Sequence to fold (298 residues):
Amino acid sequence: MARENLNDLLAFIAVAREGSFTKAAAQLGVSQSALSQTVKELEARLGIRLLTRTTRSVAPTEAGERMMLTIAPRLEEVENELAALSELRDKPSGTLRLTASEHASNAILMPKLAKLLPDYPDIKVEINSENRLVDIVEQRYDAGVRLGEQVAKDMIAVRIGPDVRMAIVGSPLYFDKRPPPRTPQELTEHLCINLRLPTLGGLYAWELKKGKRELNVRVDGQLVVNGVSQLVSAALAGLGLAFTLEDVVSDAIAKGDLVPVLEDWWPTFTGYHLYYPSRRQPSPAFTLLANALRYDGR
Fold:
């Protein structure tokens, strides 16, 4: 039997179940005359009558009953499988590749993923933590995570974290040997731990701000690192002053292991954003991730 005739079988089954051409036509969204013609053509092709028609009712013949018992359940199975495939199509799944700084990964991504991933076992997330800015299109990342000021204007950006504040700290051991700086200019007289940013190809200048005054201070010291955890470890060891995110060192400050200095010069930056190319169509899995990461202001 030709595949296009499956619709004729479905039409017959609807009439047989409803016991009425009128009700079946309304269910299928066709006219009663068109439905009657479809069933007649099916009977003609099979060479057997499937329905007994009277002025008051419609009932399946013996052949029609057999068809209802054998073919109808199989067609239902096919419809159920097609519906299941449709659900699978819309089910969030697949691997998402993200690039993010070490701090963003630990402070933002991990806590949110710990809540999201257990409920969606078909989603996998690969995070590449690095301080350099990468071309997410060229490197085939689904998205990147960076501070708002670092996101290119042609990207779609979703805010996923609060504003962040920077801090200048040193250990009590370090300050046992020299007094704390009282002005940004005095930083040049101190040992400072430098951070090398691969994207810039050089050492990061400390960006300080007090009211409307902004200063970029080039500091010097005996140690250069390329990671936040190294920076904090060096400061705790008394190797110099560190300029880093306040929430990274807040516990150490509270315990007295690090001492804050020049607090009125600590700048605030726009929080982390998830960003991706505007021309890329997000998958259900990516849309789910973006919504889970979205910052609600709390």
